[in-house]
Amino acid sequence: MEFTKENLHQGLETRVIGAKLFVFESIDSTNTCAKTLAEAGVESGTVVLADHQTAGRGRNGRSWLSEPGANLLFSVVLRPQLTREQAFILTFYSSVAIARAVESVTGEQIECKWPNDLLLHGKKFCGILLENSFRQQAITHSIIGIGLNVNQIEFHGDLGSRATSLRKELSQWFDRRKLLQSILTSMEALFIEIDSGAFEEILQDWKSRCFMFGKPITVARPHDQVSGTAVGLSEDGGLIIETNQGKSVVYAGDVSILL
Ligand code: BTN
Q: CA-to-CA distance for 142 and 140, rounded, in angstroms?
């Protein structure tokens, strides 16, 4: 089914997230559009969705490729009352909210990989690109960009071995509209924890889905890499790694798990 503002609003039970929707058949990047709208003062909870992106962006300067009309590509503008130090929670908030929604739709257990990938049967089906803007020490807006592979079956090039979709794993077609509505509902419900400053539930849920702890990993950063055993999360959302030289905390990079 083609997305329209009308059919997306139909049956959507949220009050804030998705109250304002921008729907495109094709756009450069929903994150770029959401950022422009946020800078122009659009309300918290605004959602920008597209069936196709011509310049979809992933983390660390990569592109995000997605078959037109098969998946979910959308960005949510939020204006949480968080300081610069608290902003890390948004990574875990978005992963947990989406994982809960996908679990309720599919009945399958969803795993989290640091910093913000979601995995099904050990393969990535969803990536999140978080872009925060600050004024002095507070967040002015946060753009949560979500690329979720729903019904795409073929993944080309090196994506072939790393990426998957719900349909590919579960041999079942999924209604993208219902899935999106379920994600927005879950994001709105969990946002209460962000607003109240009670991050423990979010962090506990994320940790319980993280399969990396106790495993040997390598984190590739732009200029170096850190290898060791993933042992936990620091108070500010970094990944604690036990290396030969002692404990090290990393805040960005691509994790490979060495099995
Ligand atoms: C990752 O690298 O894993 C993050 C991928 C995020 C992709 C989504 S698709 C919708 C939104 N718009 C973008 O340009 N990127 C994000």
A: 7
Contact 203, 121 (CB under 8 A): no
* Close Cβ partners of 122 (under 8 Å, ≥ 6 residues apart): 111, 211
Structure tokens at 202: 């979010």
Q: Which phi and psi angles does 120 have, rounded to 5°?
A: -130, 130
pLDDT tens across 115-140, in order? 999 999 999 999 999 999 999 999 99
Place of tokens 């030289």: 245
Closest to 28 in 3D by CA, of 48, 57, 55: 55
SS3 content of the chain, % helix, strand, coil (to 5): 30, 30, 40
The pick from 23, 57, 119, 164 for probing ligand 1's pocket by mutation, whose C-beta has the most ligand atoms within 8 angstroms, reads: 57
Q: Is 194 helix (H, G, I), strand (E, B) or coil?
A: helix
218: which DSSP letter?
E
Q: Is the CB of 182 under 6 A from ligand 1?
A: no
Give the bridge partners for 22, in sequence order. 48
Q: How far is CA 225 from CA 221, 246, 251, 254, in A?
A: 5, 15, 12, 9
**pLDDT by residue (tens digit) across 1-36?**
789 999 999 999 999 999 999 999 999 999 999 999
